[in-house]
What does this fold into?
Amino acid sequence: MLAGLVILAASAVPALPIVSGTSASATPVPVVKPPTGGGAITYQTFSVNVGHLAAMGSAGDMIEGAALLPRPTGAFGMKNITFALVDAHTGVPIPQMDAWLHHFVIAKIGADDPACPGHKMFGLKVAPIVGTGQERTPIAYPDPYAVLVPATESWGGLWHVMNMSDQAMDVKITYTIGLQTGANQSNTRGLTPFWADSYSCPGGTTWNVAGNGGPGSVETLTQTYTIPNDGIVVGDGGHLHGGGIDLVTKHGDGSILCTNTAHYMVGMENMDGMIESISSCVTHDTVTKGEKISVTSHYDNSAPHSDVMGISVLFIWFGKQPAVPVSNTTTTTVPDPDSPAAVAAASVPAVPNFTG
It folds into this structure.
C-alpha cells in the first residue's frame, strides 16, 4: 500500500531549529531588507484517527492509511508544526518505545511536486508539505519565512503505524500548527518544501538493505535533483529508518549543504524503528536555477534492514533578495596650511560674486 500511495509523500521530515545538525556550507548569506512578517502566531491542533492496533506480533498490529486531512480555514502562513501519536481515548502521548510511527505525511492535492515534476496519483498531482517519522521532529521556520497556504488548498495524509508493545491500543495522530493568519506574499517570504529522496523520484519508495557487507560496512545510495529557480535554503531536515546512519545533501559543486545524522535510543542502536531523533540544519544558503544538488543516504550494511527510506527535505524560498547595501563613506582631510599648495592658493585674490 505504501508504494501505491507514495504520491502523498512517503515518510518523513525535517525539523529546523530544534535539533542542531551540520551545515558545512559557506557563511550564510545575510537576510537583506526582510518584509515585515505575518503578525502574531496562533495555534490550532488537528487529529486523524489511525484506529485499533492489536498487540505486537498479532494480526492487526500494523495500520497503513490515507485520507483527506483537516486544516485551518482561510489563507495563512505556517510557521511551525509538531506531531504526536496519542491514545485515542485519553489524548495522552504514546511513548516512542510503544509504537513505531513509520511515517505521517501531509501533502497538498492538485499541486506539482517541485522535486519530481509530473508526479501523479489516481490522476491527481500531489506535492508533499511536511511530515514526520519515528523521530517525531518538530518543524519551525525563521522570520521572515513561512509556508504560505492558500484558502482553497486541500490536504491529504498518509500514515503507517505499528504497535511495539504487548498491549492493544487505539491510536490517533495529532498535529499542532503555529500559524499567522496575516501572512501573505507581500509581507512574508513563502517557502517551498523540496523533497529529495536518495532512492527514487518521486520520494517515498522503501527498499531493503541486504546486510551482507560484513562488520563496519555501509550501503550508499545517491540521487540528483535539479533546482528549478534561484533561491535560498533556510532549513534541511532528514528522514531515515532503523539502520540509517545519516543523509548528506550537497550543492552542485560538491560542497555540503547539510548532514542529517540519526541518533538512537540507548542500547538500541541500529535496530529497526528505534531511531530517537535526526538532526537538521538551519541555514541561509543560496541555490541557483539548474543547479544539480545530490542527496546520499548511508545505512549500516552489516545486518539486514527492511523497508527503509532516505529523504532530505529542503525548505527553499524561490526568490532574489535586494542587493546588499554598500556603505559610501567619505573621508575629509584637512589640508596643511603651511604646505606649498596652500601657500600658493592663499596668494591668489578671491573673485567676488555679485548678485542682485
